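User: Here's a chain of 172 residues. Predict its fold as tokens.
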Amino acid sequence: MRPARAALSALALALLALAGCGDSESGLAPDPASRTEPTQEPTQEPIPDPAQDPGGFAPTDYSYTLTLTCYCPDAGIPIRVTVADDEVVSAVYARGGGRSGAVAGDPVPLSRVVSLDEVIAAAETPDAHRVEVDWPEGQDHPTSVAVDPSERAVDEEYGYLVADVEVVDAPG
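Assistant: Prediction complete.
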């Protein structure tokens, strides 16, 4: 009688497990072949009128502190970025630490950093799944930009935190 009881118990567990496998159950992921693209536009905070500054950030010579939010070695480590003639010319770690083992004052590869014009361009990403922007009223650059390029991908999100912007006075 014991083997029959064990078989019935195993059958009951198998039926319970299979009960959650139906297509009509709520909470299950839809069939990828039946998905349609979202009709809703990406959410985005209002940004300043581009007619005020059609080229992005107006000053061409400045420095600022950039903190990246991403799945990358420099995430969370403040980086001091220097821009001259609208091009990033240098970048150094403002403090050490992180996954990359950064050392304060060490150079950062320029390919890992962006200018404020590029931060503004990210804030205006038209085809991303979601863009979140913190752009204080009256300020000519955002304080933060977070971009989720695709609803279907994981760990591709990135963002920029901007602080301590110092514009270099034009010679004159």
